[in-house]
Amino acid sequence: MNRKHKTYGHFIAMVVAMIVGAVGISAVYQTARNRPPIAYGNLSPESIAKFNKKMAEAGDQGSLFVLEQLVLSQWDNENDYGAQDTAGWTHIEDDRFIVYYKDDLNNVWKQNAQLTLRLANEAIPQMKAVFGKYTYPEDINGRKLPIYLPPTRSQYGETISILYGGPTDSEGSLGMTIYKVSQSGYLPMGIVLLKDIFDKNADFCNSLVVVLPHELSHYVYASLFQFSDDCVPMNWVKEGIADYVAGRNPQVQGQDSVDFIERYCDLKKDFPVEKGNFSNNQYWAGESFFNFIKEKYGKEKVNEFIQSTYTISIDSVLLVTFPNKDMHREWVDGLKTNAPSNQAIALTNE
Ligand SMILES: [Zn+2]
User: Fold this and answer.
1) For the whole prediction, is pTM greater than 0.70?
2) End-to-end Cα distance, the chain
């Protein structure tokens, strides 16, 4: 009866430190980023280690935190993996995105690339609403967001590892967003999409129209997140908001799911990634919380909540956004009111 939740896509954060003098850091930073060097400028090796540990605990098995000095030319799309002659990619692009694909006789992947480019552009207004702004190339040293459409499963894994800069576990995911954060700024390496999501028979939840906005949400959220010592992304916030934006799971189904949320989904902590029959809880339960906020307090409140997570801890976000309220209690009560009875569930599952 419990719903199985597939892994939808890892969120890879590669936090990168430059071990150079303070003067050098500040000079590189100022040329490489169009916003004040508040949080990134303060990234220390200790912070990097903390982010690394936190991301791993949050279920981002593919996260890699490396010490590396970034230079401005790394933002240049001419240096993309997809632009290398030997890699065999072709591409279409506009002012915001470059979609890399591989030619085939029937132009199937060209059509998939055109669809991806259109849907990516169509997702921008909603990103702006939820995240407060969209991250255009002019915000990140002119870099267009690369989106890769590898035509096979093995090339999917290979592309992820290449962008990531080392072996990583992409098994079970439908898409990945890979980026680096360093004292020299935010560098998106690209989004990689699994071929299965282009299948005409794919479930809605596992299709391009859901997976693409999910991954784009990671791209935007990570670009706006401050990564200060007080502020590390919560797994349920980043995955929950990505599924909320994508509209993946409109409703939590079943009393057992509600019981799970009541018992295990403390809003001030990461939700357990795996627990009993339940998995990927940061996705569906996170989305459920945002859907609940939208229904009870309106969309604007969801946006306010998300935008305050960029700079302050989750405890402070809850305190500021919902003063004097026990939001976990309200959320569970709301679900209990709306959830079908156990008996109804049993009947529909016959
Ligand atoms: Zn995700």
Assistant:
1) yes
2) 10
